[in-house]
Fold this sequence. Notes:
Elements: E1 13-15, H1 28-36, E2 39-43, E3 51-54, H2 57-64, E4 69-70, H3 100-112, H4 114-137, E5 142-143, H5 144-149, H6 151-161, H7 168-178, H8 184-204, H9 214-223, H10 229-244, H11 246-258, H12 261-269, H13 274-284, E6 295-297, E7 301-303, E8 306-308, E9 313-316, H14 318-321, H15 356-373, E10 378-379, E11 401-403
Amino acid sequence: MAEETLTDALPTVRNWPAAELTGVDFDPVLRELMQEGPVARIHLPNGEGWAWLITRYEDVRAVAGDPRFGRTAVMDQQVTRLAPHFVPPRGAVGFLDPPDHTRLRRTVAPAFTAKGVARVRDKARALLDELVDELLRGDRPADLAATVLGPFPIAVICELMGVPVADRQDMHAWTRAILSAAHGEQAGEQAKEEMSAYFADLVGVRLDSSAEDVASLLGAAVGRGEVTLEEAVGLAVLLQIGGEAVTSNSGQMFYLLLTRPDLVERLRAEPAARPRAIDELLRYVPHRNAVGLSRIALADVEVGGVRIRAGDPVYVSYLAANRDPDVFPDPDAVDFDRSPNPHVAFGSGPHYCPGGLLARLESELLVDVLLDRVPSLRLAVEPDRVPFRKGALIRGPEALPVTW
């Protein structure tokens, strides 16, 4: 872009409160920020100062993949943020830059490849069938979130991580506390410490393991001296939390489907349309509140005609990118025929979600099994009576009452 097109004029800082959104409503503040320009300035409820917000698809992908925007530098300055406990410990994998970030991710990559995910597919399908069996044997109405949509992703990510069945409810409780801003900084930090201590023990006893679960892969890497135990624990915590986020995302997906009978009927009538539908649901569903983790500009960089200075904190919004009308015509419509559909629901760049294939597998299994085995599945209450979590960083229903 030519130099004369750049501007050093700073846009007004917009306050972005933590909204209590329900259903699949798109954040009205984010929509306003998108309309005001591709680059805005925001202040979030916690931390200090302001940060740049990037919303246009092309710019979001560019910033996410540009080494001039780093995560490690966040350690050295206060940044405005959504949650009170989003202060990263030094060395946390989510705040590492390549090559250290690449080195850590390489240790667990086999578990998250197509082959690694396929390894748990049959077990995941069997687990899901058991949960649906229990649902069908139980009373009506039932809570689909408590009986299926919650337990299923927990069981699958724990299976992939190598967490024994007896410990899975502890994992769930810790994750809920970490992903909630409602209980305050102390509760979130305590949960993170307890989960970290658990994984330190689990990885520590698997230094010589040849198994293919994540804890064993990390234990072997620690045993070979490729990563430290502290690094392995940080990565395990991040993967466990990310894997369980599917719980909320699948809740929103089924809330949307069950409030749109036309969508459900098409998926029942046209099973071949389901893979495309999963992509569209991943694009459309606003799975989180506000934004996630920040970056720091390591040099002066031009983005969207705005000069971002070295040292400035920067957020990208994947939710906004997935509603960019230049990439997704009629972006507020759910279109199962949308093609191409280059959504960024799992992020972009070096920090692309390693569990994307696993999350997609879980979504496909849930749609297949619930629509085929429970053909008359429907909401048991009016849509506006479905309770949604409050104070949660990852959006989703607290309960999803259904009958059949």
